[in-house]
Structure formats: C-alpha cells, structure tokens
C-alpha cells in the first residue's frame, strides 16, 4: 500500500473519534487498545487504535492470529464448563505433590491421564485447571461430561455431515466417568476415544469416582485393552491438610 493511502486511512480513523474496548486483547505489536465494535470471533474481526496493521501488515496479522488462538480457545473452553465449575479457573488447586506432578507431566507430554478418587476430593477442579492451561496456550480444549460425550457421538453416528469431535479438539476433559449407562455403542466410542488419545491424536484427561480397573470392567472384553491405553492413573484423595497448615 502506498504511503499517501496509509496516511488517508489513518486520518479517517482519527476523525471517527473511536472508542476502545478493554474486553478485547490489545495490539500485540505496540500494546494499543482494541477499538469498540468488534467481537474477535475470527482473527480479522478486531482493529486496534494504532498504525501497526498498515505499517507492518504481515507481522501484525501473524501476531494477531496467535493472540486470537489463545483468546478464542480460552473462551470456548470456559464456555464448555458448567457455570458452577467456572470458578475453578480462578482458584488454584491444592493437594498432594505427586498428583500435581502427574498433571504437569500430562500437560507437557499429553496422552491419557486418569484421575480417580471419592467425590469431593477436587478431581474435577484439578482437571478443569489442567486443560485451562492448554486452552490458554491456544490449544483447542473442551470439557464434556461422560453423558455429553455419548450424546455427541450419537449425533455424529446419525449424521455423517456432523463435525467430528476428534477433528475439532486437541485436548478433552471427560468428567465423571462411570455414571452413564454403558450401552455397546457407548463402550465402543469410549474405547475409540481412549485409543485415539493413546495414539496422541488428542490429549485426554478422565476423572472418575472409580479406580481404573473398575471403570474398565464395564467395557467387558475391551477392559484389558482400555487399561493398557490409559497412560497414567492417579488417585486424588483430597487436599493434604498438613501441608497446607505447614
Ligand atoms: Zn499496534
């Protein structure tokens, strides 16, 4: 774009008397605020109160694309959480070091992690935060209950045109495994999911009240195969009060 054209556009922008939107990320190159009137639903649906987009279009677009992935996937992930779980995003999880280490290992290496333990020990809290870290890096993360997962799988099976969950996520939290009635169809899609994560097609975090052997038993003949594909199973026994006190 030639110089006079750039100056003309900048003049028009200034004349508009633009308002800022503090809810949108600032310019990744210079930190200028975003303008009001955009929703950032796509990388190009934002404008900043600066000249970067004209002066360095390529670098600006590349950086805005990166910011968009982090912003967009954090938001999609947050919206996939039941409202009562959204508070977990602001609250750090406190508990045993070996549990935290397993989660950090999963965040780094991916694959399958299975968190189990009695209700009320904070498994879901921990799982919500573990995948949140990945969403904030711009990975496509989602949180689904076991029931929601089967529901989606059924829709996919009925409609070949429906978008495939496995094509749409990099990271999935499947919460509270073992509650839904396991039909042969459900057993098959659950096994398929764990298998896909085992092949590193996605990173899968499972939570359940049941130890892995017990959860797997519901799969019948596939129980052994499922267990061998669960990378790591860790029992969550709730916060360690002594460590918190000390
Ligand atoms: Zn800028």
From TrEMBL:
UniProt GO BP: DNA replication
- GO terms for MF: ATP binding
Q: Which Pfam families match?
A: IstB_IS21
Stretch forming the signal peptide: none
Q: What is this protein called?
A: DNA replication protein DnaC
Q: Which organism is it from?
A: Thermus arciformis
Q: Which InterPro entries match?
A: AAA+_ATPase (IPR003593), IstB_ATP-bd (IPR002611), P-loop_NTPase (IPR027417)
List the coiled-coil residues.
none
PANTHER family listed in its UniProt record: ATP-BINDING PROTEIN RV3427C IN INSERTION SEQUENCE-RELATED (PTHR30050:SF4), CHROMOSOMAL REPLICATION INITIATOR PROTEIN DNAA (PTHR30050)
Q: Which domain of life is it from?
A: Bacteria
Specify the AAA+ ATPase domain's residue ranges: 109-240
């Amino acid at each position: 774009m030639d110089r006079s054209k750039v100056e003309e556009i900048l003049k028009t922008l200034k004349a508009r008397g633009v308002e800022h939107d503090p809810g949108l990320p600032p310019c990744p190159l210079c930190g200028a605020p975003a303008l009001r009137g955009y929703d950032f639903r796509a990388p190009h649906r934002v404008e900043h109160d600066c000249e970067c987009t004209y002066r360095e279009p390529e670098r600006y677009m590349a950086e805005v694309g990166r910011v968009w992935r982090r912003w967009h996937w954090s938001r999609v992930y947050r919206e996939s959480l039941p409202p009562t779980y959204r508070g977990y995003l602001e609250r750090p999880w406190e508990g045993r070091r070996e549990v935290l280490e397993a989660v950090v290992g999963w965040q780094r290496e991916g694959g399958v992690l299975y968190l189990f333990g009695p209700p009320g020990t904070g498994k879901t809290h921990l799982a919500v935060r573990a995948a949140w870290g990945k969403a904030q890096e711009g990975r496509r993360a989602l949180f689904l209950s076991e029931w929601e997962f089967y529901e989606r799988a059924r829709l996919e099976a009925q409609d070949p045109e429906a978008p495939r969950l496995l094509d749409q996520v990099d990271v999935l939290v499947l919460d509270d495994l073992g509650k839904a009635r396991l039909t042969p169809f459900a057993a098959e899609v659950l096994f398929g999911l764990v298998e896909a994560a085992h092949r590193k097609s996605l990173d899968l975090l499972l939570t359940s009240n049941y130890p892995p052997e017990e959860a797997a038993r519901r799969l019948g003949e596939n129980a052994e195969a499922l267990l061998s594909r669960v990378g790591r199973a860790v029992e969550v026994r709730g916060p360690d009060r002594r460590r918190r006190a000390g």
